[in-house]
Amino acid sequence: MALTDTFTLANNVKIPVLGFGTWQTPDGDVAYQATLDALKAGYRHIDTAAIYGNEESVGRAIADSGIPREDLFITTKLWNTDHGYAETQAALKLSLKKLGLDYVDLYLIHWPNPIDFRNEWQQRNADSWRAMEEAYQNGLTRAIGVSNFQIHHLEELFKTATIKPMVNQLFLNPSDTDDEVVAFNKAHGILNEAYSPLGTGAIFDLPEVKAVANRLNKTVAQVVLRWSLDKGFLPLPKSTHAERIIENGQLFDFELSAKDTATIDNLRGKFGFHKDADQVEF
């Protein structure tokens, strides 16, 4: 396995096994340089979102990288205030403009049950999904999916969808493996993407993970990202430091033993669980 290796989505689109996340990366020079550093380091999968506020900077880095568009995989997401058919069409159009792209490779519904639409989330998701299916058919995105959807959100979407989501991006890391949703996704041909694959900074202070990393002469981040890949997740690590960006992509020259994997498996709950999508205040 290498940084250029891919998973295959349900529609046969290839998606690189490691993505570069840009959540909490400030717009402007920081987002621009971090994205450019990731592309220089060999990443070909960049993950952003409308709410991150950095699509323009990410887009400039993509343009300035000189990498052919067809060699890149770019994801962005529909924000909560834009759920609905016409709203989704407009939101995707705006994201494409900010990114400076004719199409994205993956477009996701960011959250299933926004506070603005709590009494009609099912219909709003259905309407957004219809717009996304049309965008997919019209070549504005090569794949469509969701994020933070639990089983009941997916089951509701299936009632009206003519195309199933190809991806579900979730809070997945050693602290929360969300086993039931992960298994449901797999059963329906939906790839599990892992945002916050390193959880919070707390993981870097755990002696049991440090011990594994020291024995393998790897960083804690490398060990945990390798664990994520071994679980069949697609991790999306984020950093704004060039050396860490490079390190986080160096996951393919070592293996975790069964004992190492068990050690990391036992970190459940050590640094929190995913937010309840039906209770979020946004």
TrEMBL record:
InterPro entries named among the record's database cross-references: AKR, Aldo/ket_reductase_CS, NAD(P)_OxRdtase_dom_sf, NADP_OxRdtase_dom
Domain NADP-dependent oxidoreductase: 18-267
Site (described: Lowers pKa of active site Tyr): 77
GO MF annotation: an example: oxidoreductase activity, acting on the CH-OH group of donors, NAD or NADP as acceptor
Binding, substrate: 110
Positions of the catalytic residues: 52 (proton donor)
Keywords: NADP, Oxidoreductase
Stated family: Belongs to the aldo/keto reductase family.
Protein name: Aldo/keto reductase
Species assigned in the record: Periweissella fabalis
